[in-house]
Amino acid sequence: MFARDDVMINIVIGAGIGGLSTGSITRKDGKYLVTALAVEAEPAIAQAHRLNHPHIPIVEMRIQNTKQTLELMDRYVPKRFWKKAWVHASNSCKQASTANLALRNLQKAVEDTAWMIKVMERMKPALWTLENVPVLFPYFERKYPTARVFEMNRHCELAQSRRRMILSSHRLHMPERTEPPMTVRALFGKAKGWLPSKKYYTRNSFYSVRDVDHPMYCVTGGNMYMGTERVGDFGKQHNLTVGERAQLQGFGKMPVWPAQLSDSTRKDLVAQCIPPPFAA
Length: 280
Known about the structure:
- The chain is an alpha/beta fold.
- It has 9 helices and 11 strands.
- Strands 1, 2, 3, 4, 5, 6, 7 and 8 form an 8-stranded mixed β-sheet that branches.
- Helix 2 (about 45-50) links the parallel strand 3 (about 30-40) and strand 4 (about 60).
- The chain is globular and about 60 Å long.
- The two termini are about 25 Å apart.
- The mean pLDDT is about 95.
């Protein structure tokens, strides 16, 4: 199958629960995009990916050794086909995240990201891409054909303000929407029974507040609230559910979860995804 001219191979490193796999276009311009391998370090997360994408082979492995990584790639996609593959990496952002101040190590995050890029470059694929948090951008600016922080809701229908650094071996053309960004009211207003004449508010875990006629703050696994008429009235009943966070991330179908995963873990995993509409 890999030898067919109408097939482009996809390999995903740091697959999570499968935001990229959910959103990726499977056919465009006469070519089929076939995800031949997904790699995820955490067993429970890999299980969630398997439940949501049973057709995609997934391997539980922590990517930290070049030789072992390349051997794994060759096992699932023979080396002779790497030249027609799109390899994507969403390496861990924990070392760089502002939500992880206690254990934050920005220099280690930069080194890990640079190493991941070198591994993908060793493969010499048709295209490689990497996604991570914007705080890493100054360390990679102008180093690759695409090195940019994308406002994701400017490029797809997404009811949240989400910024991510995208690096790529090629210059990427990402068309911008002509419509204003989707708002929280547009996504949830009807289901919540919000009256058009009334103002309702949202709040993130940093206690920032805006009304529902704007996009939501960037989805995280922390406390996020919506739906009160007064800023001081936020309570547990207003805290976004896993399903609501998935909707804000652009999932049309709710993810399926392994039973052992807690509610807070599910929120974290949804927050870590590439929004499927952005991947499309």
